C-alpha cells in the first residue's frame, strides 16, 4: 500500500499480506476469502495514510456503501469446494479469473470461466461453483449500487439480498 510522508513524498506504507480476521476460510466454507481493501465512501478520500487498517472491520459479503476488493479461492470438490447458494447482491461487481476454472450459474444458463475471463455482475441472482480439480482464484471488486425503479418492479418480492 502506498501513501505519503510528512512532506508529501510518495512512500510504501505497507508491503505484505493484509490482516485476515474473519471466519470465511477453509474447507468447511468451500473457499477462502482474502480481504484486500475496502472503503465506505463512494468517492474514497485520499489521505497521507489510512486512519485505520481497512480490513479491521466486521466481515460482510457485500459493502453497504463504498467498495470492496477481495480475492476468493474457490476449492475443487475434493478439497471441500461446493456450489454457493443462489444469491443476489445490491452491487456492481467486476470479477476477474486469475487462475483455474469456475462456473457462473444464473437463472437460465451457466458460463464456464477460465483464466483471464471477466464478468460484470449487475445485481443478478447467481451462484459460483468450481467443478475442476484445481483451486480457482478470482479477484472480486464489489461496488455498492442501487436498483432502478423499473428493475425493482420486476424482481421477486420480497427482495432477498446477501449482505
Molecular structure report:
- This protein is mostly beta strands and 163 residues long.
- Helices cover 4% and strands 37% of the residues.
- The strands form 3 sheets. It has a 5-stranded antiparallel sheet, with no helix packed on it.
- The two termini are 27 Å apart.
- The model has no long low-confidence stretch (mean pLDDT 85).
| Average residue-wise pLDDT | 85
Distance between the termini: 27 Å
Note the total helix count.
Answer: 1
- Overall SS class: mainly beta
Please describe the structure with a list of short key phrases separated by commas or semicolons.
163 residues, Jelly Rolls, three-stranded antiparallel beta sheet, 10 strands
Fold blueprint:
Blueprint: E1 2-4, E2 10-12, E3 31-39, E4 67-74, E5 91-99, E6 101-106, E7 110-114, E8 118-122, E9 126-129, E10 136-144, H1 149-154
Antiparallel strand pairs: 1-2, 3-4, 4-10, 5-8, 5-10, 6-7, 6-9
Short description:
This protein is mainly beta and 163 residues long. Helices cover 4% and strands 37% of the residues.
Amino acid at each position: 500500500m502506498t501513501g505519503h510522508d510528512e512532506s508529501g513524498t510518495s512512500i510504501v506504507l505497507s508491503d505484505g499480506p493484509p490482516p485476515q480476521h474473519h471466519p470465511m476460510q477453509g474447507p468447511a466454507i468451500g473457499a477462502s476469502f482474502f480481504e484486500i481493501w475496502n472503503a465506505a465512501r463512494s468517492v474514497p478520500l485520499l489521505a497521507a495514510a489510512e486512519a485505520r487498517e481497512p480490513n479491521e472491520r466486521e466481515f460482510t459479503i457485500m459493502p453497504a456503501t463504498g467498495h470492496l476488493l477481495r480475492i476468493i479461492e474457490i476449492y475443487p470438490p475434493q478439497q471441500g469446494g461446493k456450489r454457493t447458494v443462489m444469491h443476489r447482491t445490491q452491487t456492481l461487481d467486476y470479477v476477474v479469473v486469475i487462475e483455474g476454472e469456475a462456473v457462473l450459474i444464473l437463472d437460465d444458463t451457466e458460463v464456464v470461466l477460465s483464466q483471464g475471463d471477466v464478468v460484470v455482475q449487475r445485481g443478478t441472482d447467481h451462484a459460483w461453483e468450481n467443478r475442476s480439480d484445481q483451486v480457482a482464484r478470482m479477484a472480486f471488486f464489489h461496488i455498492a449500487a442501487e436498483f432502478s425503479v423499473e428493475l425493482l418492479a420486476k424482481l421477486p418480492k420480497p427482495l432477498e439480498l446477501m449482505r
